[in-house]
Amino acid sequence: MKRNAVIAQSGGPTSVINASLLGAIEVLMKSEKIDKVYGAKMGILGVLREELVDITAQDPKELKLLYETPSAGVIGSCRYKIRSEEDMERIVEVFKAHNVGYFLYCGGEDSMDTANKVAKLAKERGLDLVAVGIPKTIDNDLGGELQEDGTFAICDHDPGYGSVARNTAMNVLEANEENKASYTSDPVLVIGVMGRKIGFIPASARLADPKREMPLLIILPEALPSDNDGRENLEFITEKVNEKLKEFGRCIVIIGEGVNVGDLGVLKDSFGHAQFSAAERTVEQIVANYLNGLDRKDELGRAKSRLVVRGIARYEKPGTRQRREIAYVSEVDRKEAYEVGAHAAKLALNDEGGYMATIIRTPGDEYSVEYGKVPLEVVANSSRKFPKEWIDPSKVDVTDDFVKWAMPLIGGDLPRFARFKDVFAPKLCPEYVPTGYR
Predict the structure, then answer these.
(1) Cys staple from 204: which of 85, 165, 177, 215, with CB 3.0 to 4.6 Å?
(2) What single-letter DSSP state applies at residue 317?
(3) Is-contact 252 208, C-beta < 8 A?
(4) Strands 188-193 vs 251-256: parallel, antiparallel or unpaired
(5) Is the model's pTM score more than 0.90?
(6) Which residues pair with 152 in a beta bridge?
(7) Sign of the CA dihedral running 197, 210, 143, 102
(8) Which tens digits make up the pLDDT trace of 224-233?
(9) Catalytic positions, please?
(10) Sign of the dihedral defined by the CA atoms of residues 144, 145, 146, 148, in that order
(11) Would the CATH topology of 3-157+328-379 be identical to that of 162-327+387-409?
């Protein structure tokens, strides 16, 4: 007898999440085991509310467009944590009512925990349900630790990370052009990037400048001197900024949103994760204010800058656009997102429930991957850290080993911008210092 399948998404979206959705849908819809494929509207909430979108009833042209569509707005996502037996029983009730035999959940470690719990309860309640996870997270924190061969155990990298890494690198390239143009008035630009407490996203700024020609500082949450003293970290960052200013006259600072620079006044979701985009203060704002000396104004209310050159530090936060923009999508990331979604569906159809589909990198100089599986309980509620081996001794950069690992994920070369040589006309007039600089 044919059974139905439900696909749901959880947590923050990515620019390639719908490619995983499409990969799974196409495999399921071709199977003789499947009658209907449903999409749970707004993630697991759609199951609880019995809001199941009939994907098999959609126009095939709309399905194909999933590959080109960013974010998770087509069927929706949520940050709802299952906390009660009542919710769990409701999920099983809905699945039984709709003859659901296959459940695919796309998300991070918390989503894998939910999928694992649903699978176990379904078995206890006599429901023949195959539950499989599809990895998704821009933070790249879903998987195991760094291995000696330069790849990661369990899941080498997560769909969504390659595109946000490309987005970050492109922003740094463009920011460098602006900083070169305006450094006589605002020599420092502080850019806050996503990633919570893990440094993979800020680290990707180095992909914009692998030859290390820019005055670039990369501040990872894992790399600063103090875990508890935000003031000590601000002083350390200021020292490093001024070193760059003495050398180049300007500086670009990429800083992870979870770096400890003091109390940010953050809100948290139902899983306890900090929502930095909704905080009272942001790390880039605090750093720029500290560099500008807003905390030590003189008696006339004028800031006393900590910069060793004239001008101010500006700050910007690209925000959630980093994880949704289709313009900077990595084609490698998008292809792998599709393939891992398809692989998850194949696992389900082979009755290999209780697993998450994984991306395994083949060791060696040529970049290639295979698709595997890992028990859901291994990745449920677990996250990896940015490798200490990849943090530069300066504490404000990453190593070439990170660049080697990450560069293939961003899907091809970044653009090269024009560069002029400083070939000046001969000076024919006396030296002159502008009056404002005297």
Answers:
(1) 165
(2) -
(3) no
(4) parallel
(5) yes
(6) 146
(7) positive
(8) 988 889 999 9
(9) 139
(10) negative
(11) yes
Alpha helices in 191-257 (DSSP H): 200-203, 230-248
Structure letter (DSSP) for residue 6: E
Burial class (CB within 10 angstroms; exposed 0-12, middle 13-18, buried 19+) of 410: buried
Query: What is the Cα–Cα distance from 74 to 42, expressed in whole angstroms?
Result: 9
Q: What is the CATH number of domain 3-157+328-379?
A: 3.40.50.450
- Tens digit of each residue's pLDDT (9 = 90 or more) over 308-340: 999 999 999 988 888 899 999 999 999 999 999
Q: Which amino acid is at 233?
A: N
Residues of the chain with pLDDT under 70: 265-266, 269-279
What six digits make up the tokens of 98? Answer: 């709709």
Scanning the structure block, which residue is given the tokens 């350390």? 236
Contact residues for 146 (Cβ-Cβ < 8 A; gap 6+):
152, 153, 387, 389, 390
What are the domain boundaries of the chain?
3-157+328-379, 162-327+387-409
State how far the Cα of 123 lies from the Cα of 120, in Å rounded to an integer.
5
User: CA–CA separation, 97 vs 94, rounded Å?
Assistant: 5
